[in-house]
Records
---
Amino acid sequence: MKRRIIECLKESGGYVSGQDLCERLGVSRTAVWKAVNQLRADGYEIEAVRNRGYRLMQGNDVYNQDEIAEELRTSWAGRNLIFFDETDSTNIQLRLLAEKGVPEGTLVVAGQQNAGKGRRGRAWLGPRDSGVWMSLLLRPGFAPEHASMLTLVAALAVAQGIREQTGLDCGIKWPNDIVLGGKKVCGILTEMSTEMESIHYVIIGIGINVGIRQFPEELRDTATSLSLETGKETSRAALIGAVMRAWEGYYARFLEKCDLSTLNEEYSSLLVNKDREVRVLAASGEYTGICRGIDDGGELLVEMADKSVRRVISGEVSVRGIYGYV
Ligand code: BTN
């Protein structure tokens, strides 16, 4: 019944009388009143005005299983949705579920992460109600050597989702940081379980800073959030829906050849480092060159002073702009 009330209020966009709700739901006024109070306890801001009825307040970013499920509108990604109000890390939780055999497309979302994982063993900030912290499960049939490209496909999907929901044009810092105004707004951590020739599963962990208004000192120069960039609220549930729908489209294109040939042009057009000088920090040493995009395997192409082109494999190196993060 709670869901039906929310649907009625959303549909109307204004006031709906208690009587109207009783009739539509076939329940008593007291039952409606109780359900409205429960909804308020769930985080929905519902105004009640004598002689007019109930109204759902605008801009109230309620984040729960139902809201996300309603926004998904996907054919497989996120159809099996698991929402945690609070957890350690969505990647950790999804790994446990994957081992138990949950299906491809299972999506774990958390309102708060207490032990979020970043790349290179770093921690990832996951404060309550301030971001999209989610992990998607894949069970691909292709060989493990193709898997490193998935993280680039995911970056395209996030960029598209953010564009759709905020109108902002994001860039991508190779391989998979999403960048706004020269700062990182989203990070992606892909983890997998493989055997010699096959993949058991892949977990794509996506962290989008949505409502973080202030970052710790050490991140202030390099991190940003959607609310800092837009000055507005962004619905996290709607954002998840947009990213998952975009993911389905890009992933289908990736699967045509199991490489980035169909996505390379689009990816390269979003690459913030393109045609700019980059510093490559490899284990074997540091060098600089001009970034010329990626090849169809997702490796970064760096043109050296003598015009030869070096291919940089993700995971092995860190790429920086010559003056800073981008
Ligand atoms: C990075 O270091 O850039 C990658 C950050 C990935 C963070 C996300 S948040 C959801 C998912 N769960 C985790 O523990 N990490 C990823």
---
Amino acid sequence: MLALLLQLDLPTASNFAPMVDRLYDFVNIVSLVSFVGIVGAIVYFVLRYRRKGKEPEETPYIEGHPLLEASVMFILFIFVMIFFYWGWVDYKKMMHPPPNAMEVSVTGRQWLWSFEYVNGRRADNELVLPKGVPVKLVMNSTDVIHSFYVPAFRVKQDVLPGTYTFLWFVAEQVGTYDVFCTEFCGTGHSAMLAKIKVVEPEEYAKWQKTWEWEKQLGLAPTAGAVEKPAGAPGGAPAPAGPTAMASPAERGEKLYKEKGCNACHSVDGSTLVGPSLKGIFGHEVELEGGKKAAVDENYIRESLTDPNAKLVKGFQPMMPTFKGTLNDDEISSLVAYIKSLQ
Ligand code: CUA
């Protein structure tokens, strides 16, 4: 109610929007009631205890009231804990994407947003998504810190170089929504805008189908991309040549052979010099020293750039680092390939 009042006509366009607004309203109402109460008390006391003509100069000495003070603090503490617990419960929901979520990779760079779908379709500054489907964004930056913010969805997440961060939501209304960068990232920061276009699932399927036909016919890889904003250099370094429209997993498979990963890591479950890559994604591995690690995007990134940071139990620290020899796009492609080896 208040959120609506304060945010004017901001649409509630995701599964999280009503949830965030409820907490926002609650905090606002509690603040408003306290504000009116405190100001009311001040005004009342100022009038009630104002100096009246004939009274002596000296004011009486008033002792504190420990019980009253303690109860005020206790009530405040209860409210703070309600805010905290409520926020924590909501935050946990926002941090745990459902396993069936549709993935899209997001790259932030000075000063535009690049998107890539699992099938290899790329676009700059426009993300088309189906309505009612959980979407998980796997995000990375090629330069400085950016932040991906969709007010209509009430979601925001920093996008960092050298690591992956995640964001998920279900878009629940057809329409076009603004994406802002909310971390100052250089002179083009304010122009680092994108649109999310939410369409009916059937329309989305058709849109992807058209692109897949184009892919088979070898047509332009930039189909679907929109104009880059003024001042944005280059844009996505779209791969050229016959792999221009390859999916990330296909590019990863090629790299796996080119970079010689296949000399030590099988993809069929057999153990060579290093552990097999088959079926590891999304599971836990046991490390030397007894600890366990979950194999996710950041685990694979670390294994490529700092291979001895987490050594799988029973293997020797022999893997060379690929830091500096693989760029972000190549690392993401290898992640996508390993993900596909289920
Ligand atoms: Cu990117 Cu501000």
